[in-house]
Write a structure and sequence with these properties.
By secondary structure, the chain is an alpha/beta fold. It is about 40% helix and about 15% strand. The strands form three sheets. The chain has a seven-stranded parallel beta sheet with strand order 3-2-1-4-5-6-10, with helices on both faces. A three-stranded mixed beta sheet has the order 7-9-11. Helix 1 links the parallel strand 1 and strand 2. The mean pLDDT is about 95.
Length: about 325
């Protein structure tokens, strides 16, 4: 089968590509982004035909060359992140809505019924004291959440009409992302662990009791790959939207897990310095989700915070070792 991953230069795109290169069902893989994506190291031992293409997916000509009838699965990972979308409304609209509609309309024309995996976000909801289900009314508290919700509705409708075969996955916040801080408002969730583990200072811009829905990289990638393997008949008749499994944690619990892994001195590298701009965005996201539908469809649950940190150190720690290992 032939697969394309957009936004493939990013962390999730690279992790997904690495896993797909090891999947025996995949014969051809296209990685594309606004910068040419790197080939993951796994390509050296892979038999998958792989190409990396720099492309602007807001341009029709670029999309026409990439989204062809030969595709079996399309991963739409490209987008402008939450903080950047809030700061630049017009660019967010162009990337997160206009580009998505351009791609979806091309696909329903040249490759009707193709499987489209769209990672959405818990940011489509407003703040909630109750447990959120797939049928909870979205009331986004950010431009990013609104833009994600618009694409959700469009892909769900195209799937209802049989034009495309959408799998709309509402992702928890992913921790711990390697590399450098991103434009996401939730970037600090990785930063308060990643930077101290490298011996660098980091800032916690929210209160210690701030709650957020998170999951590990390994669990996310496993679920992204599983998504296209589910027969479309297994989804509810009126919706392709699924809240992916995760766990609810507080800022304080993340720092406690860091302490368990790396000690008190490492935690001291984190400074609490409240940021009203970030707080306004992240406090608009719910922190508790009902994932009964995801579990019934066969998606994988996530582990504990300790397991998430241990996995990060094992996969990206560059020689670091958990004190509990």
């Amino acid at each position: 089968m032939e697969i394309i991953v957009t936004g493939a230069a990013g962390f999730v795109g690279q992790a997904l590509a690495a896993a797909l290169l090891s999947n025996p069902q995949v014969s051809r893989l296209t990685l594309t982004d606004v910068v040419e994506p790197s080939l993951p190291p796994q390509h050296e031992a892979s038999k998958v035909e792989t190409r990396c293409i720099k492309a602007d997916l807001t341009a029709r000509e670029a999309c026409q060359s990439l989204f062809t009838p030969s595709l079996s699965v399309v991963y739409l990972l490209h987008g402008l992140m939450s903080g950047a979308s809030e700061a630049n409304l017009d660019l967010g609209l162009k990337v997160n809505i206009d580009s998505m509609r351009l791609v979806l309309d091309l696909l329903r024309s040249v490759n009707p019924g193709v499987k489209v995996v769209f990672p959405s976000s818990c940011a489509v909801f407003g703040p909630s004291d109750s447990v959120v289900t797939e049928t909870t009314m979205p009331l986004p508290g950010s431009s990013y959440g609104a833009q994600k919700h618009i694409t959700e509705v469009l892909l769900n409708d195209y799937s209802r009409k049989g034009l495309l075969d959408g799998r709309i996955l509402r992702l928890p916040t992913i921790i711990v992302r390697p590399g450098t801080p991103t434009g996401a408002a939730s970037s600090f969730c990785s930063g308060i662990i990643r930077e101290p583990l490298k011996g660098e200072k980091s800032v916690l811009p929210v209160a210690p009791d701030f709650e957020i829905w998170v999951c590990s990289t390994r669990t996310l990638i496993k679920n992204l790959i599983y998504a296209w393997q589910i027969p479309k008949e297994k989804f509810p008749s009126n919706s392709r939207i699924v809240n992916l499994p995760g766990i609810t944690v507080t800022s304080a619990q993340m720092l406690d897990a860091l302490k368990d892994v790396a000690g008190e001195e490492t935690v001291r590298l984190v400074e609490e310095k409240r940021d009203p701009v970030i707080e306004k965005l992240v406090y608009s996201w719910p922190a508790r989700f009902d994932t009964a539908l995801a579990k019934s469809l066969g998606f994988s649950p996530d582990g504990t915070l300790q397991q998430i940190l241990d996995e990060y150190i094992e996969d990206y720690g560059g020689g670091l070792k958990s004190r509990k290992a």
